[in-house]
Amino acid sequence: MRVLLINDHGRAYGGAELQMLAIRDSLESRGHVTRLFSSDAKMMPGFPLVADRSCHGRSDMAQVVLQSVNPTAWRALRQELREDYPDVVHIRSFLWQLSPLILPLLRDIPVLHQAPTYKEICPNGLKLLPDRTNCTHLAGPICRATGCVSPRTYRMAQVQSWLLNRWRAVLDVTTVLSRRAASRFVESGWTDVEVLPNPVDDRAAVAALADHPTVAYCGRLSREKGVDVLIDAFARVRQQSPQAELLIAGTGPEEVALRARAADQGKAVRFLGHLAPDDMDRALAGAWVQAVPSVWHEPFGNVTLEAMMRGTAVLGSDAGAISDVILHGTTGLVASPGDVADWQANLQRMLSDKALCIKMGQAGRHRAETEYSRARHTDRLLALYEKAKTICAARVEARADHHNKGYIK
Fold it and tell me: What Pfam families would the database entry show (predicted)?
C-alpha cells in the first residue's frame, strides 16, 4: 500500500511530529511505502526537515493567514499527487500550517484524519480560556469576546472554519486521542469520530529509583501545561521533604517566568532544557514520580505513557486523556488541575513512599505494554485505512450518480 502522510510540521521536535514519524517507520516495517508531506515551518532551531515534499510555512504572525489559506500547500500537494498517487492519505494535522485548501485535492482518495488537538473546533486549539479554565463554548463570536483570539485572528479563523466545513466530507474517517476529546468534538457537530489513542514504543525499564525523592516534568513550558502549579506544590512539599528534587525537561515561552518562580528553591529545582528521547530517558531514569500537571484537557499527553513504559509512577491532572491513561491508585494518582493544595497532597503521598512509587511504576509498565503497544496501534491503523477506502468508494460513487442524474435531466 502507498500511504501519503500529511502533517503541518516535518521536523522531529514535538509529540505530534514524533508520532507521525513513528507511524511512518511502523508502516514501512510492514512493507508499506510512505511519503511525508509537510510545511517547511521551523519552530525550533537545530531540527532538519525530514519531509519528502514541503510547502511554505511560517512561525510568526503570518501563520495566522497561512493556516487558513496557504496556496503554496495546494500547489505542492497537487504536484505530489501528480508524481506519486497514493492508495490512502493519512492526515495527522493540517490546520496550523497547511490550511483546508488542501482538502479539495483529496476528494477522490481515501483519507484518514487524526486530530491531535482541538484545532478543528477551537481557533487556538486548546479549548482553554485566558483565565486557564476549560472552555465549554462552541466556537464563534464568543472566541473574540473572551479574548481568546484577536479580531484579526478571529476573522481568519472564520475563513478557516468555513473552508473546513465546505470540504469536511473529504475526511472519510476522523479519529481523536481520548474519550473526552471525542465528547468535545461531538458537542461541536463532529458526530462520526473514533477514539484511537497514541501508542508508546518499548524502552528499557528503570533499574532503580534515586536515593532521594525526585519528581520529573517533561514537556513544553507553556501556560496550559501547568508547570507553575507543579513548582508551587513542590515548594510546599519541600517543607516536609527538604531533600526532594524537581527536574524540568523542556523549553517554551514560559521558561523565563518559571525559572524566576523556582529561584527560591535553589538547586532543588533543575531546568534541563530540551532533551532528545534517549537523553531524556537517562536524565529521568531515577525519578520516583513523573508529573503531568496540565490545566487544559490534554487530547492525549504522550509523556504519560512514556513514563509508564519506563516504569515510573505518574501524578497527572484529572483532565483530558491523562486520567484515561492513568489508573488512579494503581499506576499513579490524579489531582485536580490547577489546584496547588491537591497537587501538594498527592505529591507528598508519593514522595514519602518509595515502595508505593515502585509498585505503581511496575503496574504502569504492564499497562503500557499490553494496552498501548505500537504493534496494536498499527493493526488498528491499517483497519481504519480499509474503512476509509470503503467510505471513499461510496462517496465517489454517490457523487458520480448525482452528476449523471443531473446530466440526464
Answer: Glyco_transf_4, Glycos_transf_1
For residues 243 and 233, what is the distance between their CA atoms, to the nearest angstrom? 15
pTM above 0.70, yes or no: yes
Quick check: 294 and 337 in contact, CB under 8 A? yes
Q: Which helix (H) or strand (E) holds 33?
A: strand 33-39
pLDDT tens for residues 283-324?
898 999 999 999 888 877 788 999 999 999 999 999 878 888
Q: Which amino acid is at 71?
A: P
Domains of the chain, CATH where assigned: 2-199+375-408 (3.40.50.2000), 214-371 (3.40.50.2000)
Question: What are the residues whose beta carbons fall under 8 Å from the beta carbon of 187, sequence distance 6 or more?
Answer: 138
Cell of 32: 508499506
Report the alpha-carbon distance of residue 129 to residue 291 in Å, rounded. 23
**Per-position b or e across 51-66, b if 16+ CB within 10 A of its CB:** bbbbbbbbeeeebbbb
Residue pair 40/56 in contact by the 8 Å Cβ criterion: yes
DSSP one-letter code for 373: B
- Phi, psi angles (nearest 5°) of residue 328: -60, 125
With beta carbons less than 8 A apart as the criterion, state whether 197 and 372 touch.
Answer: yes
